[in-house]
């Protein structure tokens, strides 16, 4: 009975706020919002100076937002104190130039809600959360999860993070649209890799008249086509390395220059081959991808150290040299060799 009363209270909160949430609480997010890596020192502490340079690297490229403490940010690997440090430095360095989105990714609603509270306290502009994971969940439980997090977020927009490869659950389009209609979700970052599902969300959003519901793709390699069929923007891990390339795709797409958008996308597909450089016989996919991104940023002089969060296996000298060769091929001159 107490649980039912709590559900009713949280539902009533959104009924009272009503449809104005999606139209006045925040503008629709769009453009290029890279999910920032978290720079670490050799002893696994947050490298705040490198983080400041990374943010400057993004802002100078013309990104429209930054997202910290997501998958690329190794948020689930960090302590709560380290997460707070990342938030504090990011909010201070961005200084209102673009929205700062904070990941609130954790296995349970209670833990994710604590991360939401930390994001609110730090001055973030929005929160991004997955469905709960580890325990198998039903769509009704995912619904309750997001309603609870939205209540904790207050005036901050809450975005769903659809990444079934990590969470084990694919967020149904009908659930996302229903949560958007009720003012619970401000949008979704789709990292499912399922193009048909993403296109359905775009179509269902249109049919529902949710003009302020944001749909972002997490793909590095199909941004030009996704923008062409109505996605609002991109949250690309490779955008850490070459944010300007994704900004050019977005600009070309807005101008209707699809040939230019495709040419830039093709160049970035070749650059994305850096994730295939690390030897997968000795490390996992996350170590390879994030290690390659951090190695590239180290070579470009943005990060002081390319280490990934423990227990990830770091790239060796030969692998870093392989990343350097692909940077040069893509027209990005390494500052280090």
UniProtKB/TrEMBL annotation:
> Keywords, A to Z?
Lyase, Schiff base
The answer on whether this UniProt entry bears the keyword Magnesium reads no
**Catalytic positions?**
161 (schiff-base intermediate with substrate), 189 (schiff-base intermediate with substrate)
Top-level taxon of origin: Bacteria
Biased region (Basic and acidic residues) positions are: 1-13
Asked if the Swiss-Prot or TrEMBL record annotates the protein with the keyword Lyase, the reply is yes
Can you name the source organism? Answer: Actinocatenispora thailandica
CDD domains from the xrefs?
DHDPS-like
The entry's protein name is Dihydrodipicolinate synthase family protein
Amino acids binding pyruvate: 235
Q: Which family does it belong to?
A: Belongs to the DapA family.
InterPro entries tied to this protein: Aldolase_TIM, DapA-like, Schiff_base-form_aldolases_AS
Where does the record place the region Disordered? 1-25
Name any one GO molecular function: 4-hydroxy-tetrahydrodipicolinate synthase activity
According to its UniProt entry, the protein's GO biological process terms are:
small molecule metabolic process
The record's section on Gene3D superfamilies has: Aldolase class I
């Amino acid at each position: 009975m107490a649980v039912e009363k709590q559900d009713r209270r949280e539902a009533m909160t959104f009924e009272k706020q009503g449809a104005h949430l999606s139209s006045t609480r925040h503008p629709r997010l769009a453009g290029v919002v890279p999910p920032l890596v978290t720079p670490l020192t050799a002893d696994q502490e947050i490298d705040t100076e490198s983080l400041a340079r990374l943010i400057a690297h993004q802002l100078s490229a013309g990104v429209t937002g930054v997202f910290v403490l997501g998958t690329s940010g190794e948020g689930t690997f960090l302590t709560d104190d380290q997460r707070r440090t990342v938030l504090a430095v990011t909010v201070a360095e961005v200084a209102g130039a673009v929205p700062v989105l904070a990941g609130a990714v954790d296995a349970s609603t209670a833990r994710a809600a604590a991360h939401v509270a930390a994001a609110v306290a730090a001055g973030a502009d929005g929160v991004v959360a997955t469905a709960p994971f580890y325990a198998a969940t039903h769509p009704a439980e995912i619904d309750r999860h997001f309603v609870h997090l939205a209540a904790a977020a207050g005036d901050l927009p809450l975005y769903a993070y659809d990444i079934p490869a990590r969470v084990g659950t694919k967020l149904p389009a009908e659930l996302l649209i229903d949560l958007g209609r009720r003012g619970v979700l401000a949008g979704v970052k789709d990292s499912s890799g399922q193009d048909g599902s993403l296109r359905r969300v775009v179509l269902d959003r249109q049919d529902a008249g949710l003009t302020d519901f944001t749909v972002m793709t997490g793909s590095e390699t199909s941004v030009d086509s996704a923008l062409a069929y109505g996605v609002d923007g991109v949250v690309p891990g490779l955008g850490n390395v070459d944010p300007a390339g994704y900004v050019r795709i977005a600009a070309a797409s807005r101008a209707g220059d699809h040939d230019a958008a495709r040419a830039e996308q093709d160049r970035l597909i070749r650059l994305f081959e850096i994730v295939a450089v690390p030897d997968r016989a000795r490390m996992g996919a996350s170590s390879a991808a994030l290690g390659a991104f951090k190695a590239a940023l180290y070579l470009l002089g943005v990060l002081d150290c390319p280490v990934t969060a423990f227990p990830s296996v770091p790239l060796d000298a030969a692998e870093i040299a392989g990343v350097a060769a692909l940077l040069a091929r893509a027209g990005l001159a390494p500052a280090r060799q």
